[in-house]
Amino acid sequence: MKKIYIIIIAVFLLTIGSASTFAQEYKIIVNSGNSIDALTKKELSDYFLKKKTTWTGNTSVLPIDLNSSSATRAVFSKEIHNKSISQVRAFWQQSVFSGKASPPTELENDIAVINYIKSHKDAIGYISSKSSPSGVKVINIK
After folding, report:
1. pLDDT tens figures, 82-103
2. What is the pLDDT of residue 1?
3. By the number of CB atoms within 10 A of the CB, which of 7, 12, 95, 114 ranks highest?
4. HSE of 11 in the Cβ direction (CA atoms, 13 Å)?
């Protein structure tokens, strides 16, 4: 009986631990001149999958992804798109093949994403929650 309680507690702690880690893996960032303060997960997904391509002021949105080997990208894809990286890649292969759109630019690391967003006023990206978003604006997810 004692073993069952230990197993239940261990599973509970692992579930709670991984859920809180999962939710804290990334920050959404935009250029500091962007007026956006928060977006829903659906809006974020639409921007990154280029289903929505303009900001409120009709300027083009420039979504930036981390490279496909990034753990932060894996969490972002699962949380925002409800898809794995391979499922998102399959979406883009189909979109490119049909001539609809091309995938967002992929950058190597958080520093590259921050620097790109600093120099492109309509860019949006994500970085690891451990990175310092110096010079860009962190927005909230509603």
Report:
1. 999 999 999 999 999 999 899 9
2. 59
3. 114
4. 6
- What is the sign, positive or negative, of the torsion defined by CA atoms of 35, 104, 91, 110? negative
pLDDT band at 22 (very low <50, low <70, confident <90, very high): very low
The structural domains of the chain, ordered by start, are: 26-141 (3.40.190.10)
Phi, psi (5° rounding) for residue 120? -130, 110
Residue pair 29/114 in contact by the 8 Å Cβ criterion: yes
Six-digit token string for 57: 């002021």
Q: Residue 27: which H helix or E strand, with range?
A: strand 26-31
The pair of three-digit structure tokens given for residue 54, joined into one six-digit string: 């303009």
In eight-state DSSP terms, residue 133 is -
Is residue 137 classed as helix, strand or coil in its secondary structure? Answer: strand
Which of 16 and 9 is assigned the larger pLDDT?
9
